[in-house]
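Our preliminary data section would be incomplete without showing what the modeling component actually yields. Below, a chain of 195 amino acids is followed by its predicted structure, encoded as tokens that our downstream tools consume directly.
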Amino acid sequence: MKNKNQLSWTILAGGEAKRMGGSDKGLVSFNDKPLIEYVYNALKHQVHSITISANRNIDDYQKYSPVIRDERKGFQGPLAGIEVALKHSETIWTGFAPCDSPNLPNDLVARLTHELSPDVDIYVAIVGSKVQPVFSVWNKRTLAKLTQYLENGDRKIMLFFDNCNTVYIDFSDIPHAFANLNSPEDVTKLGNKYE
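Predicted structure:
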């Protein structure tokens, strides 16, 4: 995308984080910095507008960017965060990344938005045959379909992709970029690689 003002971006930090013992993943310390800081710093030079989707510790997240909350009760998964972000977005395209991936590349946005087509609903990162579903860019028109999907009680993001015109963007050359930290063991393991 030549003009980074043409899309907005949301960092998804609203999960329940069961595997992290219920800790708010975005605020978990990794090499003396909260995980959200790595993601925010990687994106702030790539896009004009960043919001954070969070359901707790709002004041902590607002130190980085404006915060939006899920409108659905409980922890409904990433699609609930995507839904509310699309509702608040003032751009045709909205990109997403999780709060727990400290290795985001400096060209993530450029690669995901290289050839945005009005005929495509969603662009999603893929590494080999492994889809990275939250690393994605959505057209605002998907909102009505997503809301209906959630109203029906569905939560599986891959199934939703199958019901849309979804294009997968290959990142096989940098698979490490999508390492995410779901548990204390993941934090320790990846932290050791940094030492």
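The helical segments are 35-43, 58-61, 78-88, 108-112, 142-151, 157-162, 184-194. The mean pLDDT is 86. Preliminary results of this kind motivate Aim 1 of the renewal.
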